[in-house]
Amino acid sequence: MIKKLIRKILGTKSKAERDTSAPVVLGPDAHGIDPRLLSNNAVRVTSTLQEAGFEAFVVGGAVRDLLLGVKPKDFDIATNATPEQVRKLFRRAFIIGKRFQIVHVMFGQDLLEVTTFRGTSSDNAPKDEHGRVLRDNTFGSQAEDAARRDFTINAMYYNPANQQVLDYHGGIADIRAKMLRIIGQPETRYREDPVRMLRVVRFAAKLKFDIEPHTGAPIKVMAPLINNVPAARIFDEMLKLLMSGHALACLQQLRTQGLHHGLLPLLDVVLEQPLGAKFVTLALDSTDARIHAGKTASPGFLFASLLWHQVLEKWEAYRASGEQTIPALHLAADDVLESQTEKLALQRKIGSDMRDIWAMQPRFERRVGKAPYKLLEHLRFRAGYDFLLLRCASGEIDAEIGEWWTAFYEGDEAEREQLITAASQPASSGGAKRKRGPRRGGRNRSGKGGEGAEGGSNAVGDGSHGEHD
Ligand code: ATP
Ligand code: MG
């Protein structure tokens, strides 16, 4: 009551009372965005639309990143022009999308997404039996568009022409407080689109923001709704999560929020085994490092890593039941890929990359005759080799085998011949004859496990598997 009175006198509003139909407008001095972080093409699109008499703004993640002083990786544009009106204004523009129509505007390799302000009337939109919105193309005002966005920090509009930021939901304050807050009633928003729960995880981990308590509270209970989302969409979001440059933090958040059950169901098991945890951690660290260095990372390599310890387990089980090493590995790979594709629509190309990487592993053990040369010619050798180094670094296999392959890979003709000769000698002279297949348990036979494991990022090489895609 007293608080209300004070607010009345001061003219301030509580979050619940804030009028979200009109934005708070901030000029350059108040928001501090550096216009040099803006892409020329983003300005080109907004100004073309504005010159044609429409409203146009940079919106969403790009505004959030600009406010954080980070160069946005892509720019989304929001406008009151319809998709058809947008398309006509640009030479290379394509209307795409089923659930929501958007326009892709291309300048060379650069792609900008232009969306028409969306209306809030999702009450009438077709939904599935759990309340998930299936299709919704109603256009609306900017205020309605803002209310449909996921988080307060993702619902701001920047007009490059006058350098103003329009903030409808207290996004600026939340950016400053490093707070991830969903717009509207959290339960309703997650029901409409359960993927928003994954987005909470991704943004919290990536931006190192706290999750506002009401935003986080329903997630554990509502997590099973994820099962109801088409697998392809889950896959896209998982990929964004894993390629965010903060993959490990994201997976930890997924576990904390209880969201991983439907996604990578065996992740718990993997992360609870010391070797599995070490392996996954190394793989994700090397992916994060690549992303931070501005390199690409290969989804096939990443998923092959995440699921490797499941493959190992099944591989061993098949061998124990009498299968030969190689067929046993293929059967294990089939099982794992099959069980994952239900939840996570792994695209065929990614699935086949994963299989290649796994299937190559026993071939690294054959260091006689022409076999190593043949393997070197494998189209995906580099990915298989990087994967081998991860296995060494995690302590799963002897570090020696990785060192041998590094020397072989980098060596000249004479050095390679020497390496093969040395590897063909009895075990005492170089440990060439070792048990095929995976070695379970924490220590490795030569006692070099610690050393291998410490090898960390060095042992993982430069991880250039992505470049061979
Ligand atoms: P990133 O930097 O990772 O691309 P982003 O915020 O730009 O982050 P996008 O997935 O590119 O994320 O989405 C662009 C914008 O669209 C978001 O900022 C948000 O405003 C809106 N948006 C995206 N997905 C949803 C969703 N599931 N529900 C509501 N709004 C969404
Ligand atoms: Mg984006």
Q: Helices, strands, pairings?
A:
Elements: H1 2-10, E1 24-26, H2 28-31, H3 40-51, E2 56-59, H4 61-67, E3 76-79, H5 83-89, E4 93-96, E5 102-107, E6 110-116, H6 142-148, E7 156-159, E8 164-167, H7 171-177, E9 179-180, H8 186-192, H9 195-207, E10 210-211, H10 213-216, H11 219-222, H12 231-242, H13 247-256, H14 267-272, H15 274-292, H16 299-320, H17 325-343, H18 348-360, H19 371-376, H20 381-393, H21 399-410, H22 413-424, H23 449-454, H24 456-459
Overall pLDDT confidence: 84
Q: What characteristic shape results from the CA principal axes?
A: elongated
Q: Provide the gyration radius in Å.
A: 26 Å
- Given helix and strand content, the structural type is alpha+beta
Give the % helix. Answer: 40-55%
The stretches of 5 or more residues where confidence is low (pLDDT under 50) are: 5-13, 428-469
User: What is the class of one domain in the CATH system?
Assistant: Alpha Beta
* CATH homologous superfamily identity of one domain: Beta Polymerase, domain 2
Main sheet specs:
8 strands, mixed
Strand count:
10
In DSSP terms (H or I, runs of 4 or more residues), the helix count works out at 24
CATH architecture heading of one domain: 2-Layer Sandwich
Distance between the termini: 63 Å
SS strand fraction: 5-15%
EC number: 2.7.7.19
InterPro entries: NT_sf, PolA_pol_head_dom, PolA_pol_I, PolyA_pol_arg_C_dom, PolyA_RNA-bd, tRNA_ntf/polyA_polymerase_I
GO molecular function, one term: RNA binding
Function: Adds poly(A) tail to the 3' end of many RNAs, which usually targets these RNAs for decay. Plays a significant role in the global control of gene expression, through influencing the rate of transcript degradation, and in the general RNA quality control.
